[in-house]
Records
---
Amino acid sequence: MITPSEALSIIQDKIKPLGVESIPLINACRRVLAAPFLSRRSVPMEDSSAMDGYAVRAEDTLNPPAKLKVLGVIPAGSSVEGVHIGKGECCKIMTGAFIPSGSDAVAQKEFTDNGEDLVEIKTSVPSGTHIRLAGENLAEGELLNFAGERLTPFTMSRLVSAGAIYADVYRKPRVAVLSTGTEIAPPAEYDNLKKMLDSNSPAVMAIAEEAGGIPEYLGVIPDDQKKLADALLSLKGFDLAVVSGGISVGDFDFMSRMHEAINLKWHFDKVSQKPGKPFSFGELNGLPIMAFPGNPVSTVFCAFLYMTAAILRLQGANQCVCEPESAVLGEKIAHKKGFVNYDRAKLVNENGILTAYPYKTQSSGIFFSLLACNAFLEIPSEIDVLAKGETVKAYRYK
């Protein structure tokens, strides 16, 4: 049986990024950028005012108050070609407007009498005051290397400032989502009170969408080996398939036997972890397939840790695996050695210390525990007891 870290390494190795498409940058938030970008412009384009006020010569303000002649008004975006500030002169100027020649400072409006023809500057203004130098925010030709990152509103704004109109991004993966089990009701049968409802698939689809995938629900396959085999063989046009249930060792766990029925190749079929020990990963005709245990906590955990990593990998992301935080245990934890345990816990900030409180039961069938908590705590396989106050890795999921 492999470890969780080995499982993640295999997934990263076997899954390759998809192709690249060019889309309007304005539509690219949360997409993974495929290439760096060379800035086409400087920001600011010219020396500019950082304040509303008056463009002045610093030496004219050395002995305040100074009375200066106002030559005119310079709005943001207007040309200052031909405008020159001489001795005893100034121009009223708006934030973002270009600095005219001869001027080397901006007197803030609040420290003037706001005159129209003549203005009184009430304080001295050293050279360079309230001036944004050309290119200080971004230089023409500067390399913006966000390749492999999911674009945020802030990186998008940076790229737009650099003159980017389109973004080369990795294609979003299409994810087939299925559940198995004769006892499970698909949406069309939700009024059937004798069946369990398929709550796993909506959770898997939501996690897939958050990771950047395009999930498609393909329903519930009954406990029938041929029907399951036919359903898997019919998957076309997808980049990843996720199946919930049927992966254990029961008489009707047919997903675990698909390697015999349709030559599904498993890269691994168990992981030394709780929850989600039966989690399996393989491929069928080049399509990566993840098979999760049917217990809801197991499915959600495997989707959170492994499916997210796969979807990010398909999108060419540099960082595919969730980064843990360090937390201090708020109470003792005890486990049998031999498995990496991922305990549900509530992370709370107590006097600046991130403190983790494990849920009262870690049964993989108690879905409410996921709602009551906000993180999984990683407890190494060689540890059976962790005392209150010890440090643990916490993977926050909400």
---
Amino acid sequence: MLKRTVFGICFMVLFGLQNVVFAAKAKTAAPPVFIETMTIKPVAKLDQITATGNLLSIPGIVVKPEIAGRITKVYFKSGDVVAKDALLIEINPDILKAELLSRQADLQVKKLNFDRTSSLYKTKDISKSEFDQAQANYDSAKASVEGTQAKLQQATVKAPFAGKLGLSQVNEGDYVNVGQNIVSLQTVDPLKVDFSIPEVYQSKVAVGQKVVFKTDAYPQEKFDGTVEALESLINPNNRTLGVRANVPNNSGKLISGGFVSVSLQFSEEQVITVPQTSIVYDPDGSYVYKVVGDKAEKIKIELGAKDSDNVVIKSGLNTGDVVVTAGQVKIYPGAKVIMVGNKKA
């Protein structure tokens, strides 16, 4: 009985060894696999982030009158580009002019009285209180004249800075109240773009840094700007840092209030990339097959950033390596391969 058992075990061991030999021979004798490959070379990759920004005119205001009255003249047309101090409207000045003449006459009388009182005070013919009263009356009259002159100046509304006017909200003959909208006045060139970036990028952004952005109004064009200022604190609600960029607008294509897609570029670096389809995913990591001679080697890699087609390889491959891009499902480590196509990365 013991002899039979020993014989059976020996037979099984020999049979197993024979199967291993046959499998090794079969594997060795397997035909080569036809594959497509790619030779790795470094490519330039921009380190950048994107954000949504808002175009601003700084300065940019809605012009409003500081006094009420009837508009007697309108000096502008909707859409005009105006210089600083350009006349916009005139609010009926007649009442103020008459008031000014009256106050100037009163001032003249108060000045004569003050001069006479001063002389009498010097000779001590009047009391100090009488002199003080005459001086107060004279000062009050001067203030009244100056106040009326200021109101008269406000009757002529001017552009406080150069820019482009919007649509007129008034007509000649209209009665306007204090603070009523007359017309929008916006700086045209340059404009500003305000946007926010995650706080982790705080150390990478600096004044003078280049900004590239696009707008839906001109989808085929790119516009350049430079970082002008950074917010002084992090937004506690979303942990972002506000950034303002200065944007030349010589063409006048850009309009304040529009949305833009902003790309803030930090640096450019050389990286290695492969098509995502070339990667083999195993439970213990990510791999690619590299061709060495006429055989395939399975190489473990560390993945970086991805896009729709490619993935950055942080480690595992070097420039000049030949990587299998098609046919890898049929190969195994050490398999013989025949390249039927090769391209540069």
---
Amino acid sequence: MYVLWTIESIRAVEIKSKYLIGRFPSQNPILALKASHELDLVYDNRSQEEAAKAYYEWWYSSYILSDKMNIDPLKNTDYRWH
């Protein structure tokens, strides 16, 4: 999760994301459920495996790097960074 969070930090800085907190994409390298109205953090293996798969597929997609940076790897998952 730390590595994915670091990758997301690099991506967010590159695109000058409005969601950056300082230089980080979130306060902690922890996933949260997107659909929850309250902060619902998830720590289970399933969520971490799904996030890892999403980042793997994002990285190995056919897009060139500059286009890839504008794609949120977690877009098609139930998760976001805390």
---
Amino acid sequence: MSTRDKYIEMAKAQLDEWNATIDKLEAESKKEKAEMQLKYETQVKEMKVKRDELQEKLKKISGATDDAWETLKDESGKLLDQMKGTLVETKEAFLAGLNEKK
């Protein structure tokens, strides 16, 4: 398996994990009050936009030349980092919201 294939496989696995997290956060947000629901829905939308951008980059990587794939890898790496940061922030905000209710 080439480095490119391994990278794509790793990124797709990360996307699958994040999709599950997004789905869980989305479901949990529906149980919250309208104010909190709006906050979480906004964050979930942001995560979905980044996820979609990353999926598009992965499609481009699959068909890219060797030189182009390195550039795309760097770009998708930045998206992976942004997505991870957004997920962490959203989860922390969600947990903080739950703690405030107690």
